[in-house]
């Protein structure tokens, strides 16, 4: 794992030189032990990725680029077995619900509107650090989550102690939130087949434990949820994997199965309030979520 962290590469694909610079500077100020590589378009990015063999990788990509759009480039990345595991964050000046929905329907990991001010680019860097590099040292505003509108969160966790702590931490982070807890794979399957379509409103976020109790249980459930949302023509609610495992194979396999993010649980329960406050702040306030459709 240590060698992988040292080999972390973050690719920025954007035809706007100023935007690339702003993202790169923000990342270099926040993220440790990562190499930032710039690409001027999708073609150059694909060439760089095809020559990379080892280490942890992440792509930040503009939606609108000449010759090959961000979504077209994304489709090629995800159709290649050697790059399918690489998470991709889409950034764009556009924030229309239709474009955001289209991006998530394609399977993008996260969608963010480009900030108006240079100082706000650090939000992208904190997202990378916390949700994709699992560096829990990222410091977000102390008010994170306190003024958030009511949100609905589905939590799937088979460890009763963890489930209780998560519920408390989420309620503390988003006091107006409605937390729905499900305890295992069987209960979750029943929930989606019998309860989901009767919910109003639907969950904004799904938090899924990977080992339920085995890895394959979590992967099966991840695939089932994705297929359920697709076949029912429902919006692609982001699914964040929460796990004690930091094994590279677990992380890569979850991304291959279309998890939006893989976050390693903090080993110190005393930090869980801050951990979930940061998680909620990023995913429910900063990131653009799909809102069109049920």
Description:
The chain has 294 residues and is an alpha/beta fold. The protein has two domains: 2-132, Rossmann fold (3-Layer(aba) Sandwich), CATH 3.40.50; 152-286, Rossmann fold (3-Layer(aba) Sandwich), CATH 3.40.50.2300. The protein is 42% helix and 17% strand. It is built from eleven helices and ten strands. It has helices spanning 2-6, 17-30, 42-50, 70-79, 97-106, 122-132, 160-173, 185-194, 215-231, 248-256, 272-286; strands spanning 8-13, 34-39, 57-62, 88-92, 110-113, 152-156, 178-182, 205-209, 239-243, 261-264. The strands form two sheets. It has a five-stranded parallel beta sheet with strand order 2-1-3-4-5, sandwiched between helices. A five-stranded parallel beta sheet has the order 7-6-8-9-10, sandwiched between helices. α4 (70-79) links the parallel β3 (57-62) and β4. The termini are far apart. The model is unreliable at 1-5 (pLDDT under 50).
* Mean pLDDT across every amino acid position: 90
Q: Give the overall shape.
A: globular
CATH superfamily of the largest domain: Response regulator
Order of helices and strands: HEHEHEHEHEHEHEHEHEHEH
Characterize the biggest β-sheet: 5 strands, parallel
Question: Which class best fits the helix and strand makeup?
Answer: alpha/beta
CATH architecture title of the largest domain: 3-Layer(aba) Sandwich
Number of strands: 10
* Helix count from the secondary structure assignment: 11
The strand line-up of the biggest sheet is 2-1-3-4-5
CATH class of the largest domain: Alpha Beta
Percent helix, as a range, is 40-55%
Q: Report the uncertain regions.
A: 1-5
Radius of gyration: 18 Å
Fill in the CATH topology of the largest domain: Rossmann fold
InterPro entries: CheY-like_superfamily (IPR011006), Sig_transdc_resp-reg_receiver (IPR001789), TCS_response_regulator (IPR052893)
Keywords: Phosphoprotein
GO biological process, one term: phosphorelay signal transduction system
Protein name: Response regulator
